[in-house]
Amino acid sequence: LQEPLSLDAIRAAARRIEGRVVRTPVLARAPRAGLELLGKAESLQPTGAFKLRGAFSLLATLSPDVPGVVAHSSGNHAQAVARAARVLGLRAVVVMPSDAPALKRARTESDGAEVVVVGPDSEERARRAEELARERGLVPVPPFDHPLVAAGQGTAALELVEEVGALDRFYAPISGGGLMAGCAVAVRALSPRTEIVGVEPEDGDDTRRSLSAGERVSVPPPKTLADGLRVRTPGAFTFPILQQHVARVELVSDEELLEAMAWALHELRLVLEPSGAAALAVALREGRGRCGVILSGGNVDPGLLREVAKRGRAPRL
Amino acid sequence: LQEPLSLDAIRAAARRIEGRVVRTPVLARAPRAGLELLGKAESLQPTGAFKLRGAFSLLATLSPDVPGVVAHSSGNHAQAVARAARVLGLRAVVVMPSDAPALKRARTESDGAEVVVVGPDSEERARRAEELARERGLVPVPPFDHPLVAAGQGTAALELVEEVGALDRFYAPISGGGLMAGCAVAVRALSPRTEIVGVEPEDGDDTRRSLSAGERVSVPPPKTLADGLRVRTPGAFTFPILQQHVARVELVSDEELLEAMAWALHELRLVLEPSGAAALAVALREGRGRCGVILSGGNVDPGLLREVAKRGRAPRL
Hints:
Two copies of one chain form a homodimer. Chain A is of the alpha/beta class. Helices cover 43% and strands 17% of the residues of chain A. The first copy, chain A, is built from twelve helices and ten strands. Chain A has helices spanning 7-17, 51-59, 76-88, 102-110, 122-136, 147-164, 178-190, 206-213, 238-245, 254-268, 278-286, 302-310, and strands at 26-32, 35-41, 69-72, 92-97, 114-118, 139-140, 169-173, 195-201, 248-252, 289-295. Chain A has a six-stranded mixed beta sheet with strand order 1-2-10-7-8-9, sandwiched between helices. In chain A, helix 4 (102-110) links the parallel strand 4 and strand 5. In chain A, helix 1 (7-17) packs across helix 2, helix 1 packs across helix 6 (147-164) and helix 3 packs parallel to helix 4 (102-110). The radius of gyration of chain A is 18 Å and the shape is globular. Chains A and B meet through strand 1, helix 10 and helix 12 of A and strand 1, helix 10 and helix 12 of B.
C-alpha cells in the first residue's frame, strides 16, 4: 500500500527547498517545572510564515517553461507563492479578496505577482483561480490540499526533530491541515511515541468535529482573531492523514491567543500573529515533558501588535 | 609574532560553545535597491544577547573544581554568566548595581546566581568583584576585555560569514569592544575585502575618539537609550585589535535607534533592544552591497517596547 505522504517525500521536499527558506532556530524555554518548550520559529521565514516551505516545495518541481502559477489567498499563502515564483523566475497570479489587508496586497505585488481582486467570498476566489488556470494554462498552487505542499510544510517538523531528538508531545495549528499532515508524518516516523496534538480556535473547530464524526464536516465562517485558521472544512488529501496521526485537537480562545503572543514577545523576543501563537497557547496551558511547538507565523496587524505590547511584561502562567 | 586573537582561537571557541548556544538564523532583506541586509539575530539566544557566547567560551575552559566564577554587570553579561555557570554546574556570583532593572536581577537569580548589590557606580562594582575573587577564590569573567570572551563573541561573525560568504560591509556595535574584536578577526580572515564598520551612540563615542587619538581615551558617563553601549573606555586587550581592523566608527542618535527597533519589529518580526538595533540603524542609513549586521540583543524594557510598537508599521527609509 502506497502511503499518501511519506517521510521520503518530506526529505525530498527538504532537498528542494534547501537554501531557499530559512533553517529556523529552535528556541528552548522552561516556562514551569516539568515543561521543556521547544519552539520552531517559522515566523522568521522571509515572508513571515511556514507557507514558504510548501510554495517552494511545489514550485521547485515545475519547468521554467510553464506559463506561470495561480493561487488564491487572503494572506500568508499569497505572499509565499509570490516570493517563491519570483525567486524561481516564474510568473505568479494571485486572486485576493477585496477586503484583504492593504499591507498583504502590497507585499504580494512588490514580489512581482499579478493580483486579481474579487469579492470577499472564499468560493468566488477559488472559482476565479480555476478559471485563470484554464484560460491561461497556469499551474494551480493549492494552499494545503496537495501532497507536494504538505510535504514542504512537513520539513518544519523534520528539522525540529532532527535537531532536538525525540519529543513527548508535538503541537501545531490546524487550518486546512497541510502543515499538520506534513509535520505529523515526519514526527511519527522519527519520534514514534510522540503524542501529536492539533490546535484550532474555539470558533473554527472543523477538524475537531470532523475527527469526532469520522468524516469531513463543515462549520460556518469562523469568527476568530486567528485569521490564518478560518478554513471551514479539512482538506480531502490532508484529512485521512490527520485521522491516522493526530491524537486530539485542543481549542483556544482569542484571549489565550493574545496572552501567548505577549509571552512570545517578552520571553522569546518574537512577533507572532494570532494563528502563529495558537499551538504555543495550548502548550503553555497543558504541556508536560519535551514539547515541540510550531510557531507558525508572524504577520500581525500593527494595531494588534500594539495592543499585545501594551500587556507589559510576560504574563504569569 | 603571536596574534592577540586568531581565527583558530575563534574556531576553538565555536567548538566549546557548540550545542550550548543557539545557531542564530541570518535574516536577509533588501530594504532598498542596492542594499542586501544580512542580519544575524543574536537576540534569539536564550538570555537574549550574544553575551552567552563569550560566557560559555570562557567558562567551558574551567575545571568543575573551581570554587566558582564572579562577574560584575548591570545587564546582559550578568544573565549570560549566570546561565552558562548553571548549565556547566559552576557556582556564579554577580555584582549588580542597586539601580539595575528588577527584571534583569530576577532573571539572573532565577538561574541560580548569587547577586551582590552595590551602589550604582561602575568602579565600585569592579572593585567589589575583585575583592570577591580574592576572598573566595572565584574566577573573574570580564565582560569584554579577555581573549576567551572576545573569541566567543567572534563566533557570531564566524557563523555569519560561513553561512553567507563574502561581505561588502560588516556592522557591529562597539561597547568595550569584545564583540567587535572577535567578529573583526573572523570577518577579516574569511572575507578579507570587507569594510568593517563599528557603531556607537552619539553620546558614548569613546572608541571613535580613541581611534582618532591613536590611544584609549575616556568619555564622561554616556546618556543614551542604548544601555548596553554605555562603556566609557575601550578595553586594553580589545582596542589594538579594533585599531587593526575597524575602518571607521559611525554614530547613531536615540531617534535612529527607535526607528531601527520599529523596523526590526515589523520587517524582521524581532524584538531588539536599543543597543541591539544600533548596527542595523547605520546599515539602514548608509549600507550598500552585501551588508552583514549583528543584531546583538533583545532585552528591552516592556515600556520602551510599547513605545516602539506604537510607531505602527515599518517606517519608510
